[in-house]
Amino acid sequence: MRGFGIDLGTANTVVGTPEDGIVLNEPSLLMVRTREPHKALTIGHEASDLVDRIPSGITAIHPIRDGVIVDLGTARTFVSAVLERAAPRRRFGTRPTGVVAVPAGVTPLERRAMLEVAHEAGLRKVGLVPEPVAGALGCGLNPLEPSTHLVVDIGGGTSEVTALCYGGVLSHRSCRIAGNDLNRAILRYLRAEHELVVGEFTAERAKVGAPETAEEQPLVVEGRDAATGRVRLVTLETEEIMDAVRPTMTSIVQTLSACLDDLPARAIGDVMAEGMLAIGGGSMLRGLPQLLEEAFGLPVKTAERPLTCVAEGATACMDHPEVVAAYSA
Ligand SMILES: Nc1ncnc2c1ncn2[C@@H]1O[C@H](COP(=O)(O)OP(=O)(O)OP(=O)(O)O)[C@@H](O)[C@H]1O
């Protein structure tokens, strides 16, 4: 095995290898014993299954916040456990290489933290590539050609839009409002309109599970009555969920659309012809492509695999080191 392409996200971590494609796609969550914070008990789906029923003495940690590392120790523990799970029978003595995707707006300090963690977790020769570049590559676009690609990425903790051309960034905007904030908006809505108290996990299930058509079963959410504390069920219409998240979605899209102000006219011509590419789990939210089209005045194409295209692109970078070199300058 040569190495890994890694997308360490606020909500999900996705890992690929050139030989096997995507080998891990799990929530970015780490469970540790409170007394031994740097020893992983479990990660990913198994850790998220424990949420809302975590026994005392065990702590849940989100090792990535808003797309970047906040604590070196826990991030190292998490990445080591991720690599172990991604390739459990790795031969010792052959340290794999890695290409890690990072937000386009990452600071030099955040880049150094990511490199340090990746090296300490057992990778040698680590390259960093901006997420929109990896996402574009993962969707079959060429980020080195002399034509502009506009990529919008709505993740769990960050939303970004980046215009790429010929190995460089023409324009970029980001905000730290994304999928997690949409969950919180649903949570507040349920409390205000239905007097129902739910956790973020339930709010996320309502967001992701909103029926697409009137023929589908309506969505039923379970929570506690705000007054009595008793368990209660509420049937939610899709329109209600859309109403709950619309103000947050609108504010994300408006912040990002300012990216067009910095684009030269010819670059706008390119993106008018090609359309903008929407990636990240948030791009699957109903109504988002229409909102983006209205705010940017451009056609929008949602990636075929919005949740994994960044890791696919980071993996592809192992065969295209010229992409990493161009965009790390
Ligand atoms: N079908 C769906 N509809 C709406 N939102 C969705 C859907 N599926 C996943 N999401 C949301 O996508 C977000 C996760 O997306 P993604 O995995 O791209 O983010 P991330 O890379 O972990 O985060 P970041 O890029 O901010 O670090 C979560 O907020 C999740 O609720």
Keywords summarizing the entry:
alpha+beta, Nucleotidyltransferase, domain 5, 11 helices, binds adenosine-5'-triphosphate
Structure write-up:
This protein has three domains: 3-138 and 309-327, ATPase, nucleotide binding domain (Nucleotidyltransferase, domain 5, 2-Layer Sandwich); 149-177 and 246-302, 2-Layer Sandwich (Nucleotidyltransferase, domain 5), CATH 3.30.420.40; 179-245, ATPase, substrate binding domain, subdomain 4 (Actin, Chain A, domain 4), CATH 3.90.640. Helix 4 crosses helix 10. It has helices spanning 44-50, 72-86, 108-120, 131-138, 179-194, 200-209, 238-257, 265-274, 288-296, 309-316, 321-327, and strands at residues 3-8, 12-17, 21-27, 30-33, 36-43, 58-61, 64-65, 68-69, 97-102, 124-130, 149-154, 159-165, 168-175, 196-197, 219-225, 231-236, 276-279, 300-302. The protein is of the alpha+beta class and 329 residues long. The longest helix has 20 residues, at 238-257. It is globular. It is 37% helix and 29% strand. It has a five-stranded mixed beta sheet with strand order 3-2-1-9-10, sandwiched between helices. A five-stranded mixed beta sheet has the order 13-12-11-17-18, with helices on both faces. Adenosine-5'-triphosphate (ATP) binds at residues 9-12, 67, 155-158, 178-180, 204, 207-208, 280-282, 284-285, 307. Forms polymers. It is found in: Cytoplasm. Keywords: ATP-binding, Cell shape, Cytoplasm, Nucleotide-binding.
